[in-house]
UniProtKB/TrEMBL annotation, chain A:
InterPro entries xref list: Anti-sigma-factor_SerPK, HATPase_C_sf, HATPase_dom, MEDS_domain, RsbA-like_anti_sig
Protein name per Swiss-Prot or TrEMBL: Sensor histidine kinase
Top-level taxon: Bacteria
Molecular-function GO term, any one: kinase activity
Length: 320, 281
């Protein structure tokens, strides 16, 4: 038996919390968490340090609420999905009838990497739907840009308000439709300069060697190695499933390496590609998922006659 | 050796003298063959130049190098007809290894430090079946060379065989000059594992990798198929999975010993069972 606003709901009950003050956040979060505790449901908080402290202080000291370190959980969307699915499966295996989670993406995710978090927020409506999950995604409207707020309303079926209501979002869009839309890709300022490497129809090996050649020692060895994996997978997909010509461009900045791989095709058919391992055996899906796990940021862009994957290793949170 | 030629595998633990040399220019091959044999003479080895050419012609080519001419006169160097060394068109891998084992031991018994051979094997690998048998032989003789003083330069005419066929053979050597063979599967010290794996492995040489594993016919020990991969620069998830599946068919867990962190991360990420990545020693 599920409790609270999600009572009677099957699958994932996905709400946004758009708050303007600490008081508004607590007005939603505290009853949500205490309701879960009272019902004996697994109750989880995945906030950054500031809001975690805020919520901890507002709860009874002995409240059996699990606090996850939000920074780790929300490092990358595909990582979050994998970790949450494992967590949810474990709770269900332990007999949970409902799991309650309130979380927030780190503030930095509201910037240039928001596009893949928007994809995450949309995709999880389906990806978590096999679990009796009631989650709230908290966004501080004082720091959230208007286009991001628009995406939040389109990716969350419900909105929880500070006065205790749970209202449907008027602009909620089915994930398959949302994830298929052509999204604007904000250019990395590095892309305004000439690429240091430009290859046409490279083999994956040539692409890998290009990344090693561009490494100036500014990134960790693991970051470079992970980018090599991602570039190799992306070029492999472009050669196998895209259309020629395949063009690789690479820019090397002080704190990051940015690589674009463009082909003349339309990109993966699976709207969820990258966020979850190849569903229904779609071509290239596992490679893109590995890429999502390996890079600081991955952006997908469909142009009129081309499909581009942009990969960033190092710090993807550039300022324009 | 040509200053511009890149030898994959050169300069590392794989440099024990088993070199694949594919060529487009026979003159260049002959020149490289003479260099290889002259290095053997300088090291006190008996040397053979094995080819389909008339012995007189092969001998003339060798005489262009003074040390080889002297060695020919002394009987330390020989031009050997291919047909007398490799019986039949399709090589019998085990029997052929026995031929070279015996020849190596004879060289040692007569005071040489070992046997060094240049063999142009193009005529022995013209069909897929012959190539399969010869690739198997290449791995078996490679195992012998890893531990005994036999060294060889195997010549393959790329104009006749094509890049794909050459790649099938080149990848079974610890060293090669064929840039299309991105990986190498070769012998290692017996206490280091079943074989060594070097170079780069991805979706585009996955099938070649599969064939190489089949032809090497590696044997697990204590339920583990250990590959020493200190010189492996890259392996993708396709090839990791294929290696796992190959070991599974042998009833074993695949163990990859590599210094590259990405292989371990991929195995963990994909939750691949039946394969373990260990840090290279």
């Amino acid at each position: 038996m599920r409790t609270g606003a999600a009572a009677g709901h099957e699958g994932y009950y996905h709400e946004a919390v758009c708050y303007r003050s600490d008081a508004e956040l607590l007005a939603v979060a505290v009853p949500f968490l205490l309701g879960g505790v009272a019902a004996g449901e697994p109750t989880v908080v995945s906030f950054g340090a500031r809001n975690e402290a805020l919520v901890r202080a507002a709860l009874p000291a002995d409240a059996p609420v699990t606090f996850l370190t939000g920074g780790d959980m929300y490092a990358r969307p595909a990582v979050a999905i994998k970790a949450y699915r494992q967590l949810l499966a474990e709770h269900v295996a332990d007999g949970a009838r409902q799991i309650r989670i309130i979380g927030e993406v780190p503030r930095v995710a509201l910037g240039p990497t928001w596009d893949w978090w928007a994809r995450y927020e949309s995709a999880i409506n389906q990806v978590y739907d096999e679990f009796p999950l009631w989650s709230m995604c908290a966004y501080d409207t004082r720091i959230t840009p208007a286009p991001v707020l628009s995406d939040i309303m389109r990716t969350h079926p419900q909105v929880a308000t500070a006065d205790g209501r749970h209202v449907p979002s008027d602009t909620y869009t089915d994930p398959t439709a949302y994830l298929t839309e052509t999204r604007t890709l904000p250019p990395d300022p590095l892309q305004w300069t000439e690429p240091v490497i430009e290859l046409t129809d490279p083999t994956p090996a040539q692409a890998r060697h290009a990344v090693y050649g561009a490494d100036r020692g500014g990134l960790s060895i693991d970051d470079v190695e992970d980018l090599v994996v991602a570039v190799s997978e992306t070029v492999t997909n472009a050669l196998r499933y895209g259309r020629p010509p395949v063009r690789l461009r690479l820019w090397a900045g002080e704190d990051r390496i940015t690589v674009t791989v463009t082909d003349g095709g339309t990109g993966p058919k699976d709207p969820f590609a990258g966020l979850v391992p190849a569903s229904n055996g779609s071509s290239g899906g596992l490679g893109l998922w590995i890429t999502y796990q390996s890079c600081g940021h991955v952006a997908l862009h469909r142009g009129p006659d081309s499909f581009t994957v942009r990969l960033t290793a190092g710090n993807p949170h550039f300022t324009v | 050796m040509s200053a511009t030629t890149v030898i994959s595998g050169s300069g590392n633990a794989a440099s024990y003298g088993h070199l694949c040399w594919s060529y487009d220019d026979p003159v260049d091959f002959d020149r490289r063959a003479r260099e290889f044999l002259a290095e053997g003479i300088a090291a006190g080895e008996r040397v053979w130049f094995v080819s389909t050419e008339q012995p007189r012609n092969a001998t003339e080519k060798m005489r262009k190098v003074t040390s080889l001419a002297t060695a020919l006169d002394r009987g330390t160097a020989r031009a050997v007809p291919l047909a007398s060394t490799y019986g039949g068109d399709t090589v019998d891998p085990a029997a052929q290894v026995a031929v070279y084992e015996a020849a190596t031991e004879r060289a040692l018994a007569t005071g040489h430090s070992g046997l060094r051979v240049v063999a142009d094997a193009t005529s022995l690998v013209r069909t897929p079946a012959r190539r399969a048998a010869f690739a198997r032989y290449e791995h078996l003789i490679d195992r012998y060379m890893r531990v005994r003083p036999l060294s060889a330069m195997c010549g393959y005419d790329r104009r006749e065989l094509g890049d794909e066929a050459v790649a099938e053979l080149a990848c079974m050597h610890p060293e090669n000059n064929a840039d299309q063979a991105l990986f190498r599967l070769h012998a290692c010290d017996p206490d280091e594992g079943a074989a060594a794996l070097a170079g780069e492995l991805d979706k585009f040489n996955l099938e070649l990798f599969s064939r190489a594993l089949d032809r090497a016919d590696l044997r697990p020990v204590d339920g583990e198929l250990v590959l020493s991969a200190a010189d492996l620069r890259f392996i993708d998830h396709h090839c990791l999975t294929r290696l796992r599946d190959h070991a599974h068919r042998l009833g074993a867990t695949a163990v990859l010993r590599t210094s590259r962190s990405t292989a371990a991360r991929l195995v963990e990420l994909l939750a691949l069972s039946g394969i373990r990545v260990e840090a290279a020693r």
